[in-house]
Amino acid sequence: MALDKRKENPTKRYYRKRIELFRLIEKIKLWPSRKGTLHGIKTIQKLGDQALITTHCNKTFMVNNSRNSRAARWLRNKWISKVCPVCGVPDWKLEKYSVTHFKRHHGSLLLEKNGNTQEKS
After folding, report:
1. 78: phi > 0 → left, psi -120 to 50 → alpha, else beta; which?
2. Which among 17, 45, 93, 96 has the fewest CB atoms less than 10 Å away?
3. Contacts of 53 (CB under 8 A, 6+ apart)
4. 3-class DSSP state for residue 114?
5. 25-32 — which CB contacts under 8 Å span 24+ positions?
6. For the whole model, what pTM was predicted?
7. Spatial contact of 83 and 89, defined as CB atoms under 8 Å apart
8. Nearest CA-CA partner of 58 in 47, 43, 70
9. How far apart are the C-alpha atoms of 7 and 84, rounded to whole Å?
C-alpha cells in the first residue's frame, strides 16, 4: 500500500530559482533543446566556466554556466514540447521533474560540500 500511495503523490522538490546552470543540470540530468525537446544527459565535463555535455542520443555541445540562459529558463519554466525518443528518458524521471518547483526565496541551493552535492531546505 505504501508503494501505491507514493506513486500517486510523488514528493515535491523545491530548488532556488537563481542557481547556476551546471548545478541544476548535474542534479536533474535533463537538457532542453532549442526545438523544445527534452534530452537525457549522459555525461557532463566541466572545463572552467564552460561544460561539454553529451546526451544519451550521442549529441555533444558546449554550454556556458549562466543563471539566465535559454536552457536555464526553459528548465525552470518547463517549456518543453516533447521528449527525445532516442534518449529514452524514463517516466519516473519525467514525473519527478514535473513536480519540481523553483522558488525565489525557498528551496535547495544545491551547495557543494566535500565534492558532493548537498540539499539544504
Report:
1. left
2. 45
3. 25, 31, 41, 43, 44, 45, 60, 61, 62, 63
4. coil
5. 25/53, 25/71, 25/75, 26/110, 26/117, 27/110, 27/117, 28/75, 28/97, 28/100, 29/93, 30/75, 30/89, 30/93, 30/97, 31/55, 31/71, 32/71, 32/74, 32/75, 32/79, 32/80
6. 0.78
7. yes
8. 43
9. 24
Contact between residue 26 and residue 44 where contact means Cβ atoms under 8 Å apart: yes
Distance separating alpha carbons of residues 58 and 51, to the nearest angstrom? 15
- DSSP at 83: E
pLDDT for 21-77, tens place per residue?
Answer: 999 999 999 999 999 999 999 999 999 999 999 999 999 999 999 988 999 999 999
Nearest alpha-carbon partner for 71 in 95, 41, 93, 98: 41
The amino acid that residue 111 corresponds to is L
Tell me, what amino acid is at 81?
Answer: S
Quote helix, strand, coil % in the chain, to nearest 5. 25, 35, 40
Give the separation between CA 84 and CA 93, rounded to whole angstroms: 13
- CA 10 from centre of chain: 17
